[in-house]
Amino acid sequence: MPCSPARRLMVAACIAALAGTGLAQPAADWPVKSVRIIVPYAAGGPADITAREIAQKLATLTGQPFVVENQGGGMGIPSLMAVARSDPDGHTLWMPALGNVVLQPLLSRNGGGEQLAKLRPLGMVTTSAHVLVVSTRLPVRTVQELVDYARAHPGQLGFASAGVGGTAHLGAELFKSLSGTEVVHVPYKGSAAAIGDLASGRVGAMFSSLPSLQAAVDKGYVRVLAATAPSTSPATRALPLMSATLTGFEYASWYAMYVPQQTPDAIVARANAVLQRALKAPELAEKISLHGMEPLPTGPQEVATWVRRDRDKWGALIRETGISLD
Questions:
Q1: Confidence at residue 197, expressed as pLDDT on a 0 to 100 scale
Q2: Sheet holding 131-135, edge to edge
Q3: Is this model's pTM higher than 0.85 or not?
Q4: What is the b/e burial string over 218-254, where b = at least 16 CB atoms within 10 angstroms of the residue's CB?
Q5: Which terminus of the chain faces fewer neighbouring Cβ atoms within 10 Å, N or C?
Protein backbone atom coordinates (compact mmCIF):
# COMPACT_ATOMS: atom_id res chain seq x y z
CA MET A 1 0.00 0.00 0.00
CA PRO A 2 1.53 3.36 -1.00
CA CYS A 3 2.36 5.75 1.80
CA SER A 4 0.54 9.05 2.09
CA PRO A 5 2.57 12.23 1.65
CA ALA A 6 2.20 12.93 5.39
CA ARG A 7 3.54 9.48 6.29
CA ARG A 8 6.47 9.85 3.88
CA LEU A 9 7.34 13.16 5.52
CA MET A 10 7.19 11.57 8.99
CA VAL A 11 9.50 8.70 7.95
CA ALA A 12 11.94 11.12 6.34
CA ALA A 13 11.97 13.24 9.50
CA CYS A 14 12.71 10.20 11.67
CA ILE A 15 15.58 9.12 9.42
CA ALA A 16 17.03 12.63 9.49
CA ALA A 17 16.78 12.75 13.29
CA LEU A 18 18.55 9.43 13.63
CA ALA A 19 21.26 10.54 11.24
CA GLY A 20 21.76 13.67 13.32
CA THR A 21 22.51 11.59 16.42
CA GLY A 22 24.77 9.20 14.54
CA LEU A 23 22.48 6.25 15.36
CA ALA A 24 21.54 5.64 11.73
CA GLN A 25 25.16 4.90 10.84
CA PRO A 26 25.73 1.16 10.26
CA ALA A 27 28.53 -0.01 12.57
CA ALA A 28 30.17 -1.91 9.72
CA ASP A 29 30.79 1.42 7.96
CA TRP A 30 32.75 2.99 10.83
CA PRO A 31 34.49 5.33 10.29
CA VAL A 32 32.63 7.26 7.63
CA LYS A 33 34.55 10.51 8.11
CA SER A 34 37.59 11.97 9.85
CA VAL A 35 38.13 10.76 13.43
CA ARG A 36 39.50 13.00 16.19
CA ILE A 37 41.77 11.55 18.88
CA ILE A 38 41.82 14.07 21.73
CA VAL A 39 44.91 13.77 23.93
CA PRO A 40 44.87 15.59 27.31
CA TYR A 41 48.56 16.53 27.03
CA ALA A 42 50.66 19.03 25.13
CA ALA A 43 52.26 18.18 21.81
CA GLY A 44 55.66 16.52 21.77
CA GLY A 45 55.36 14.25 24.81
CA PRO A 46 55.06 10.45 24.92
CA ALA A 47 51.24 10.52 24.83
CA ASP A 48 51.18 12.78 21.79
CA ILE A 49 53.85 10.85 19.89
CA THR A 50 52.20 7.50 20.62
CA ALA A 51 48.76 8.81 19.64
CA ARG A 52 50.13 10.02 16.30
CA GLU A 53 51.73 6.66 15.53
CA ILE A 54 48.43 4.92 16.32
CA ALA A 55 46.44 7.47 14.30
CA GLN A 56 48.62 6.87 11.27
CA LYS A 57 48.07 3.11 11.47
CA LEU A 58 44.31 3.49 11.98
CA ALA A 59 44.13 5.78 8.94
CA THR A 60 45.95 3.18 6.85
CA LEU A 61 43.57 0.42 7.97
CA THR A 62 40.34 2.37 7.47
CA GLY A 63 41.08 4.80 4.65
CA GLN A 64 39.81 7.70 6.78
CA PRO A 65 41.91 10.46 8.42
CA PHE A 66 42.62 10.19 12.16
CA VAL A 67 43.60 13.59 13.55
CA VAL A 68 45.30 14.04 16.94
CA GLU A 69 44.19 17.10 18.91
CA ASN A 70 46.23 18.16 21.95
CA GLN A 71 44.15 19.69 24.74
CA GLY A 72 46.47 19.91 27.73
CA GLY A 73 45.76 21.61 31.04
CA GLY A 74 42.91 21.57 33.54
CA MET A 75 43.86 18.07 34.71
CA GLY A 76 42.54 16.80 31.37
CA ILE A 77 38.94 17.70 32.24
CA PRO A 78 38.39 20.16 29.33
CA SER A 79 39.48 17.44 26.92
CA LEU A 80 37.21 14.91 28.62
CA MET A 81 34.23 17.25 28.34
CA ALA A 82 34.98 17.95 24.68
CA VAL A 83 34.60 14.23 24.00
CA ALA A 84 31.54 13.87 26.24
CA ARG A 85 29.77 16.66 24.32
CA SER A 86 30.63 15.21 20.90
CA ASP A 87 28.26 13.12 18.78
CA PRO A 88 28.19 9.51 20.06
CA ASP A 89 29.09 8.05 16.69
CA GLY A 90 32.66 6.85 17.28
CA HIS A 91 34.30 9.76 15.49
CA THR A 92 35.68 11.48 18.60
CA LEU A 93 38.00 9.47 20.86
CA TRP A 94 39.72 10.37 24.13
CA MET A 95 43.16 8.93 24.93
CA PRO A 96 43.83 9.53 28.65
CA ALA A 97 46.50 8.09 30.90
CA LEU A 98 46.33 6.32 34.24
CA GLY A 99 46.68 9.70 35.93
CA ASN A 100 43.60 11.18 34.26
CA VAL A 101 41.31 8.22 34.88
CA VAL A 102 42.50 6.90 38.26
CA LEU A 103 44.84 9.23 40.12
CA GLN A 104 43.24 12.65 39.68
CA PRO A 105 39.78 11.58 40.90
CA LEU A 106 41.46 10.05 43.97
CA LEU A 107 43.58 13.12 44.65
CA SER A 108 41.05 15.90 44.10
CA ARG A 109 37.33 16.59 44.42
CA ASN A 110 37.72 18.38 41.09
CA GLY A 111 39.65 15.54 39.49
CA GLY A 112 36.97 14.50 37.01
CA GLY A 113 35.40 11.52 38.75
CA GLU A 114 31.82 12.57 37.98
CA GLN A 115 32.62 13.58 34.40
CA LEU A 116 34.14 10.17 33.65
CA ALA A 117 30.64 8.69 33.92
CA LYS A 118 29.85 10.52 30.65
CA LEU A 119 32.29 8.28 28.76
CA ARG A 120 32.66 4.56 28.14
CA PRO A 121 35.88 2.63 27.46
CA LEU A 122 36.80 1.52 23.97
CA GLY A 123 39.94 -0.45 24.84
CA MET A 124 43.41 -0.31 26.31
CA VAL A 125 46.13 1.19 24.12
CA THR A 126 49.58 0.82 25.70
CA THR A 127 51.30 0.00 28.94
CA SER A 128 54.81 0.77 30.12
CA ALA A 129 56.90 -0.23 33.11
CA HIS A 130 58.75 2.58 34.82
CA VAL A 131 62.28 2.34 36.16
CA LEU A 132 63.99 3.27 39.40
CA VAL A 133 67.14 5.29 38.78
CA VAL A 134 69.70 6.86 41.09
CA SER A 135 72.35 9.50 40.68
CA THR A 136 75.71 7.89 39.95
CA ARG A 137 77.04 10.03 42.82
CA LEU A 138 75.10 7.75 45.13
CA PRO A 139 77.12 4.65 46.18
CA VAL A 140 74.42 2.09 45.29
CA ARG A 141 73.99 -0.37 42.44
CA THR A 142 70.98 -2.45 43.50
CA VAL A 143 67.57 -1.88 45.03
CA GLN A 144 68.69 -3.56 48.26
CA GLU A 145 71.71 -1.28 48.47
CA LEU A 146 69.39 1.71 48.04
CA VAL A 147 67.15 0.42 50.84
CA ASP A 148 70.21 -0.04 53.06
CA TYR A 149 71.44 3.45 52.20
CA ALA A 150 68.05 4.98 53.00
CA ARG A 151 67.94 3.18 56.35
CA ALA A 152 71.43 4.37 57.20
CA HIS A 153 70.57 7.98 56.23
CA PRO A 154 66.98 8.59 57.42
CA GLY A 155 65.41 11.71 55.98
CA GLN A 156 68.39 12.40 53.71
CA LEU A 157 67.54 10.50 50.52
CA GLY A 158 65.48 12.64 48.15
CA PHE A 159 63.19 11.19 45.48
CA ALA A 160 62.53 13.62 42.62
CA SER A 161 59.23 13.88 40.74
CA ALA A 162 57.60 16.11 38.14
CA GLY A 163 54.94 17.13 40.66
CA VAL A 164 52.70 16.09 43.53
CA GLY A 165 50.39 13.16 42.87
CA GLY A 166 52.06 11.77 39.75
CA THR A 167 53.34 8.22 39.37
CA ALA A 168 56.90 9.28 40.26
CA HIS A 169 55.66 10.73 43.56
CA LEU A 170 53.45 7.74 44.31
CA GLY A 171 56.28 5.37 43.40
CA ALA A 172 58.48 7.09 46.00
CA GLU A 173 55.71 6.79 48.60
CA LEU A 174 55.27 3.11 47.77
CA PHE A 175 59.04 2.60 48.14
CA LYS A 176 58.94 4.37 51.49
CA SER A 177 56.00 2.29 52.71
CA LEU A 178 57.27 -1.13 51.62
CA SER A 179 60.91 -0.58 52.60
CA GLY A 180 60.16 0.98 55.98
CA THR A 181 62.52 3.86 55.21
CA GLU A 182 62.26 7.60 55.65
CA VAL A 183 62.84 9.15 52.24
CA VAL A 184 61.90 12.68 51.16
CA HIS A 185 59.72 13.56 48.18
CA VAL A 186 61.16 16.51 46.20
CA PRO A 187 58.59 17.80 43.67
CA TYR A 188 59.63 19.85 40.63
CA LYS A 189 57.65 21.79 38.03
CA GLY A 190 58.21 19.31 35.23
CA SER A 191 60.48 16.37 34.57
CA ALA A 192 63.34 18.32 32.95
CA ALA A 193 64.25 20.12 36.18
CA ALA A 194 63.87 16.92 38.19
CA ILE A 195 66.19 14.99 35.87
CA GLY A 196 68.70 17.85 35.92
CA ASP A 197 68.99 17.80 39.71
CA LEU A 198 69.09 13.99 39.70
CA ALA A 199 71.99 14.07 37.24
CA SER A 200 73.86 16.62 39.36
CA GLY A 201 73.33 14.64 42.56
CA ARG A 202 71.13 17.21 44.31
CA VAL A 203 68.53 14.47 44.67
CA GLY A 204 69.34 10.80 44.87
CA ALA A 205 66.61 8.79 43.14
CA MET A 206 63.58 8.90 40.89
CA PHE A 207 60.91 6.74 39.28
CA SER A 208 60.18 7.52 35.63
CA SER A 209 59.74 6.14 32.15
CA LEU A 210 63.11 5.14 30.71
CA PRO A 211 63.04 7.21 27.46
CA SER A 212 62.84 10.49 29.39
CA LEU A 213 65.96 9.48 31.33
CA GLN A 214 67.91 7.82 28.53
CA ALA A 215 70.15 10.79 27.74
CA ALA A 216 71.22 11.07 31.39
CA VAL A 217 71.79 7.31 31.52
CA ASP A 218 73.90 7.37 28.35
CA LYS A 219 76.04 10.19 29.73
CA GLY A 220 76.65 8.27 32.94
CA TYR A 221 74.84 10.74 35.19
CA VAL A 222 72.21 8.29 36.43
CA ARG A 223 72.10 4.53 36.97
CA VAL A 224 69.12 2.26 36.29
CA LEU A 225 68.44 -0.17 39.15
CA ALA A 226 65.16 -1.94 38.37
CA ALA A 227 61.82 -1.96 36.54
CA THR A 228 58.53 -1.43 38.33
CA ALA A 229 56.70 -4.21 36.44
CA PRO A 230 57.39 -7.13 34.09
CA SER A 231 57.93 -5.91 30.54
CA THR A 232 58.42 -7.17 27.01
CA SER A 233 60.07 -3.92 25.91
CA PRO A 234 63.68 -4.41 24.77
CA ALA A 235 64.71 -1.49 26.97
CA THR A 236 63.35 -2.87 30.24
CA ARG A 237 62.64 -6.61 29.94
CA ALA A 238 66.07 -7.67 31.22
CA LEU A 239 66.06 -5.37 34.25
CA PRO A 240 65.64 -6.71 37.80
CA LEU A 241 62.14 -6.20 39.17
CA MET A 242 61.38 -4.00 42.18
CA SER A 243 59.21 -6.81 43.55
CA ALA A 244 62.27 -9.08 43.81
CA THR A 245 63.46 -6.88 46.68
CA LEU A 246 60.24 -5.25 47.89
CA THR A 247 57.36 -7.74 47.83
CA GLY A 248 54.22 -6.18 46.39
CA PHE A 249 56.01 -3.35 44.60
CA GLU A 250 54.55 -3.33 41.11
CA TYR A 251 52.98 -0.70 38.91
CA ALA A 252 52.85 0.29 35.27
CA SER A 253 51.63 3.37 33.47
CA TRP A 254 49.07 3.03 30.68
CA TYR A 255 46.87 4.75 28.11
CA ALA A 256 43.35 3.81 27.04
CA MET A 257 40.70 5.00 24.56
CA TYR A 258 37.23 6.26 25.52
CA VAL A 259 34.13 7.38 23.60
CA PRO A 260 30.91 9.17 24.66
CA GLN A 261 28.69 7.07 26.93
CA GLN A 262 25.80 6.91 24.43
CA THR A 263 27.92 5.45 21.62
CA PRO A 264 26.06 2.32 20.37
CA ASP A 265 27.49 -1.08 21.31
CA ALA A 266 27.88 -2.07 17.66
CA ILE A 267 30.05 0.96 16.89
CA VAL A 268 32.14 0.35 20.01
CA ALA A 269 32.68 -3.26 18.94
CA ARG A 270 33.65 -2.25 15.40
CA ALA A 271 36.01 0.54 16.58
CA ASN A 272 37.59 -1.76 19.15
CA ALA A 273 38.22 -4.44 16.52
CA VAL A 274 39.99 -1.91 14.29
CA LEU A 275 41.99 -0.52 17.23
CA GLN A 276 43.11 -4.01 18.25
CA ARG A 277 44.13 -4.77 14.68
CA ALA A 278 46.26 -1.62 14.61
CA LEU A 279 47.89 -2.38 17.97
CA LYS A 280 48.76 -5.92 16.89
CA ALA A 281 50.71 -4.69 13.86
CA PRO A 282 54.43 -5.45 14.38
CA GLU A 283 55.53 -2.21 12.72
CA LEU A 284 53.46 -0.13 15.16
CA ALA A 285 54.82 -2.05 18.15
CA GLU A 286 58.35 -1.36 16.93
CA LYS A 287 57.69 2.37 16.59
CA ILE A 288 56.07 2.93 19.96
CA SER A 289 58.64 0.75 21.75
CA LEU A 290 61.10 3.55 21.04
CA HIS A 291 59.07 5.63 23.50
CA GLY A 292 59.01 2.91 26.16
CA MET A 293 55.47 1.76 25.31
CA GLU A 294 54.08 -1.71 24.73
CA PRO A 295 50.85 -2.20 22.74
CA LEU A 296 48.00 -3.53 24.87
CA PRO A 297 45.12 -4.58 22.58
CA THR A 298 42.08 -5.45 24.71
CA GLY A 299 38.32 -5.21 24.79
CA PRO A 300 36.45 -2.50 26.71
CA GLN A 301 35.94 -4.72 29.73
CA GLU A 302 39.70 -4.96 30.37
CA VAL A 303 39.85 -1.18 30.75
CA ALA A 304 37.43 -1.44 33.67
CA THR A 305 39.58 -4.18 35.19
CA TRP A 306 42.77 -2.09 34.98
CA VAL A 307 40.99 0.98 36.38
CA ARG A 308 39.53 -0.97 39.31
CA ARG A 309 42.86 -2.64 40.13
CA ASP A 310 44.81 0.61 40.08
CA ARG A 311 42.12 2.50 41.97
CA ASP A 312 42.36 -0.06 44.77
CA LYS A 313 46.18 0.02 44.81
CA TRP A 314 46.72 3.77 44.66
CA GLY A 315 43.61 4.65 46.64
CA ALA A 316 44.93 2.75 49.66
CA LEU A 317 48.32 4.49 49.41
CA ILE A 318 46.76 7.94 48.94
CA ARG A 319 44.55 7.48 51.99
CA GLU A 320 47.52 6.20 54.02
CA THR A 321 49.75 9.16 53.10
CA GLY A 322 47.09 11.87 52.93
CA ILE A 323 48.31 13.15 49.55
CA SER A 324 45.89 15.65 48.01
CA LEU A 325 45.78 18.14 45.15
CA ASP A 326 43.04 20.22 46.84
A1: 95
A2: 184-187, 158-161, 205-208, 131-135, 222-227
A3: yes
A4: eeebbbbbbbbbebebebbeebebbbebbeebbbbbb
A5: N
